[in-house]
Amino acid sequence: MTKITRYKKITIQLINNLLFSYSMLLFMRNKWVGLVLFLITLLNPNLAFSGVISWMTTLLFARAIGIRQQNLVHSIYTYNSLIVGFSIGFLFKISVLSVLLTVGTSVLTVMLSYALYSYLTLQMRLPVLNIPFFLVSTIIYLASVRYSSLFVDSFYAFEGLNIQQLPMFLQGLFKTTGNLLFMPYDLPGILILIALLCNSLISCSLLIVSYYTGVCCLALLKGSFTHAFYNLSAFNFILIGIALGGIFLIPSRRSYFLSITGVFVSVFILDAASVVWSMFRIPVFTLPFNVVVLLFIYVLRQIGYPYMNDYVQDVPEKSLTFYLNYSLRFDRITPQPYLPFLGIWTVYQSFDDQWTHQGNWKYAYDFVITDDQGNTFCKHGDQLSDYYCYGKPILSPVEGTIVDVFADLKDCPIGEVDKNHNWGNYIIIYAIFGYYIELSHFQEKSIKVKMGDKVKPGTVLGNCGNSGYSPQPHIHMQVQYWPNIGSVTSPFYFSNCIDQNKSICKYDVLTKGTQIEPLTFSRKRNQILNFILDDTFSFNFCMNNDYSEPIQMTVRMDIDGSYFFQIDNTHDRLYFGIEQHQFICYRLTGKKYSPLSYIFASIPILPITIQRNIKWTSILPGNILGPVRHMQTLIQSFDHRFNQIKGEYALTDDNKCVSGKIQFNRQEIQTQLIFHKLKG
Q: Which segment of the chain is annotated as a signal peptide (predicted)?
């Protein structure tokens, strides 16, 4: 790499870093939004100069003490230092002394940011927000009493940036929005709103609703809308609304309610803080925002709120799409053991069924084997040996440890039950995933494991019997979170099982009478689909009988260890993996209409099996078949299943390709993916 190329690359990185730091003022990561905000600050050269000096100092000092640019705290300290620079530029004239002051406060901001990150984020899983800015700016404004030679009496008033004759309710909104950049004027506020509207309809809507909610509460309490609309500290309402409504919580009806609640609570904190801070003639800055948001996030995490946004994306729309991609396609919480047998069995009793599966024990299944006429026995059915499932091997449905075994009861003759030992001979397994599996009614003296034994899926545990309260031979299975026999049951699904129609029963509650069997795992296909790092592939796609040119892609690995396909010389990535005997396409990043989207749409999930004509359904992310409109995402935030894209897939009879049918925007899209013999 030549020196010119190297310097060019460094310059581009620095410019992008600066613009990303600006965009984070609106909780976004978008260099074009950052560019707009940077240009807005140029309307006040004093402000822009101080901000850039603060940003440059932060980068140099961070590099000097060894903070890597890739460090997670990087965006935190550049963002906070930038606002500190704005606060100094708003207060002091440009001079040698003000530059030295900016440099010193930037260093202090970096140290505070790193210290708070180490405690709040790493130990308490809380964001740093702009606490460093609040602390440093408060210190500087208090100290400014003694810096009269630097103080700017006029504060560089730019009345030309105001628009006369605007209604009071619009002036208040625009000035407060502009105050996010320390520019409380109409024109900056309008430009910020336009930039926000073009990139995130959710954030823009939250800004407007949160502002007017807070101002109305303030006006009702104070008895004056005039004072409320011209209270420039109301930008705290905006920050709280966006942070709780779309950044740290997944956009939803709940998050919107919580954001409005947070704004309402912040009104009291704002007024209380103003009373104290006014004694020192300084503003409250972002104290209400930091207190309310941290308090809400801490409490919501403690109670296990299900819509925490642990993977914050560039804008709320992308966070929602990312969340829906995983929440609707994958259930990472509900236990998903394998079936405890081989061959075709029938559901004899399901969840919350008419006999014993009631109350605390309603989440359980009973299984039997039936013939073509639906009978569970041959001959007269008066002998245990007449029943098809009697004596059949029962397998471990999970990997785990045997924690309890009871194996001494005799099988009950047909027509009799043991009311004193309801569960009969049983085994309880502690799964490696943190729950317990109980299997009951084993055949007398057939159990082959003992307490403490380690088992894996498919390990033979014993034989199906008729011990305990059992009117006929069957196997009982339930999931629980306590090791005691008869504990309260919990919902669960079965992994990799198919019904009589050869449809995969993923996330389905099996109904009584359903015939099911486990999928037969294909080691050969699994080996083919275990793509190796730096493997290269060439593929093409056909749309409406129009074939594309060959496209080259390579297997890469991300910093978190996840694998992805990347089209050569592009940023298009398709993340994939194998879990529970399925090849899964997780997510797609890059440009719109990437060729990788055709692979995703064709096999979002692929069962790795030797069985043929297997059918399954899968939810597809909203961005797979093209860009998602902002209005559509806004509506989807109120109803997460709105405009859901569902695909139906099937392995062909020769098991060499997958055909699919996708319902999208009232259209039916047909797909077909052909496997390569060696490359998958």
A: none
